[in-house]
DNA sequence: GCCAACGTTGGC
DNA sequence: GCCAACGTTGGC
């Protein structure tokens, strides 16, 4: 019995990596590097599996919004940016033998015709319990309930 | 193990 | 740019 598909949300600042950048990447796929929070790392390492579906969220954007979806196409492996001294996310404690930080590969599924803004998410009753909407929520990798995922998808696909 | 200081996130 | 909310660090 295969494990049930899970749903996620990842945050990125479009100034550093936007969904357009993902669309322009080889095979529209990217390694999701730079996560430096243990709770988010644990999701990447332990729970994100091949075929899981992911909401793509632009933070620090105008407006902040879920702008599309992607798919987990490679499960967790060591985040090489952690032992790259020149990288902004360099961590002196990490090495290829002890990566500490993990990443997955994500492939673009769709860019929404209608970006679902944060205020729109807040205005949707059935999304009231989304982690993203919790006060002070800062996790850059979050779990999303199947019903929440489907609702965001439905709003984003409306022209 | 406590907790103050500090750094980061991210909406506004 | 402001600032609230968090996470991490390090002295004790």
Describe this protein's structure:
The protein has a single domain (7-157), classed as Roll (ph1033 like fold), CATH 3.10.590. It is 21% helix and 31% strand. It has helices at 19-24, 38-47, 118-122, 146-157; strands spanning 7-12, 29-31, 53-58, 65-78, 102-117, 141-144. A six-stranded mixed beta sheet has the order 2-5-4-3-1-6. The longest helix is centred in the C-terminal third of the chain and has 12 residues, at 146-157. The model has no long low-confidence stretch (mean pLDDT 95).
SSE order in H/E notation?
EHEHEEEHEH
Q: What is the 3D form?
A: globular
- Fourth-level CATH superfamily: ph1033 like domains
Instruction: Calculate the terminal CA-CA distance, rounded to whole Å.
Output: 38 Å
Second CATH tier, the architecture: Roll
Biggest sheet features: 6 strands, mixed
Keywords:
ph1033 like fold; 6 strands; DNA-binding; alpha+beta; 159 residues; six-stranded mixed sheet; single chain
Topology, element by element:
Blueprint: E1 7-12, H1 19-24, E2 29-31, H2 38-47, E3 53-58, E4 65-78, E5 102-117, H3 118-122, E6 141-144, H4 146-157
Parallel strand pairs: 1-3
Antiparallel strand pairs: 1-6, 2-5, 3-4, 4-5
The structure holds a DNA duplex (12 and 12 nucleotides).
What's a quick, concise take on this entry?
By secondary structure, the chain is α+β, with helices and mostly antiparallel strands. The protein has helices at 19-24, 38-47, 118-122, 146-157, and strands at 7-12, 29-31, 53-58, 65-78, 102-117, 141-144.
């Amino acid at each position: 019995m295969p494990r049930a598909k899970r749903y996620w949300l990842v945050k990125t600042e479009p100034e550093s990596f936007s969904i357009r950048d993902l669309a322009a990447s080889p095979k529209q796929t990217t390694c999701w590097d730079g996560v430096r929070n243990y709770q988010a790392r644990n999701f990447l390492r332990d729970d994100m599996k091949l075929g899981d579906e992911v909401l793509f969220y632009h933070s620090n954007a105008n407006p902040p919004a879920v702008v599309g979806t992607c798919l987990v196409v490679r499960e967790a492996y060591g985040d090489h940016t952690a032992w790259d001294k020149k990288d902004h996310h360099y961590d002196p404690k990490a090495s290829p033998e002890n990566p500490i930080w993990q990443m997955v590969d994500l492939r673009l599924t769709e860019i929404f015709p209608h970006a679902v803004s944060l205020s729109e998410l807040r205005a949707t009753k059935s999304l009231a319990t989304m982690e993203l909407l919790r006060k002070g929520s800062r996790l850059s990798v979050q779990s999303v309930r199947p019903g929440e995922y489907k609702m965001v998808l439905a709003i984003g696909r409306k022209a």
